[in-house]
Give the backbone structure.
Amino acid sequence: MATNTLDDRDADDYSETESALETALRQLSAAATQVDVDDGVIERLKHPTRVVEVGVPLKRDDGSVEVYTGYRAQHDDVRGPYKGGLRFHPDVTAEECVGLSMWMTWKCAVMDLPFGGAKGGVVVNPKDLSTEEKERLTRRFAEEIRDTIGPKQDIPAPDMGTDAQTMAWFMDAYSMQEGETTPGVVTGKPPVIGGSKGREEAPGRSVAIIAREALEYYDTDIGEATVAVQGFGSVGANAARLLDDWGADVVAVSDVNGAAYDTSGLDTHAVPSHEEEPEAVMSYDAPNTLTNEEVLELDVDVLIPAAIGNVLTADNADDVQANIVVEGANGPTTSAADTILEERGIPVIPDILANAGGVTVSYFEWLQDINRRQWPLERVHEELESMMLSAWDDVRAEVEARDVSWRDAAYVVALERVGEAKSSRGLWP
Ligand code: NAD
């Protein structure tokens, strides 16, 4: 299964601490060597359209005032409005938002969604705020970036430290100022105010669909397949339970405390997910337990890292025994690990394809908001299935045609789409 790499560096040449922006730029340069896109277009894609920085004053519950910094980075909108999450996290930086906005451009393009890429956030630890403070902060941030966003310009969504409630406050603040109810300004809202059914489980569902397709591609019957999942949260638990329902043996699932392990397959519906009971995987009565490090080294057909970034590194990539890695988390594989796994012939199906069900159902939500008509869950599932299979086929075709890795193929598909759109529209003036 070994393939050509798009650039010639060895694993040792890659820093394990590469920033999101460095990763995004490296992937762009690598994909550019494969795609017939004008140099001027590539140059434009190395830069965001704009990065907005705002001060967000907040009256704390004790009457004192603090001012937080917020950002919205918009990378490219050649294919449609900017789209991407808003995070509340102490480590948010302008540079990180730019790098993550580029990832969103490629993720939307690989799914052929009519969106470009954006990312934003506020430099704050939401755990330090009361619910009322979070609401005031969200409303003021929405107002500070109101000129930059909108259902036709830029559509935020939940991300680290934000959730459906945050989106509801954001949508309300925007709507009050605009003088009309505007549900399409954000996605990931509660269904009662225009959110889509099936949005919450969508990233996990897409991971399961892609894992199922990957198993078939590599000639493994899903009914005979074994799966290990690191992280039993929104992404990991939904993916694990679907694969279990489809006949696979999910032998290990973990949370931050470790893994439940059963070689004959866990009853994944009986293991508490992060949402049902946080960090309670170990309460499941499994015959064995494992550490999180051991989960990554299990001899299984599919390994799904679905917890945090940078867990597959130069230190453990040689010990991975899975036949296929399907990325559930964003960025779980460092560049060095990517190179090692590629040399070892272990295919890594990348995050921008595998977990793109979230942004895809966000697109469905936006369509529903514009049309003021909610889709039944069955339609969400059917259309997600169809878009995932289509994206899978597009990426698979590039893997076969160019003999490149799945990650490089996904970036090629994305860059071709964005590059052609840019060339076709031209540069104004
Ligand atoms: P979540 O908070 O619902 O669950 C995270 C799970 O990972 C929990 O079970 C937690 O215990 C576990 N975990 C945390 N730190 C860990 C560690 N160090 N080792 C092992 N397990 C650990 O999170 P989520 O929404 O499922 O997101 C997981 C990943 O998927 C993140 O990288 C996120 O960016 C990415 N992602 C999420 C979505 C989404 O819409 N939820 C979409 C795309 C990508």
Notes: DSSP finds 13 helices and twelve strands in the chain. The pocket of nicotinamide-adenine-dinucleotide is lined by residues 203, 230-236, 254-256, 274, 279, 292, 306-309, 328-330, 355, 358 (CB under 6 Å). Residues 220 and 331 are 26 Å apart (CA to CA). The first strand starts at residue 50 and ends at 59.
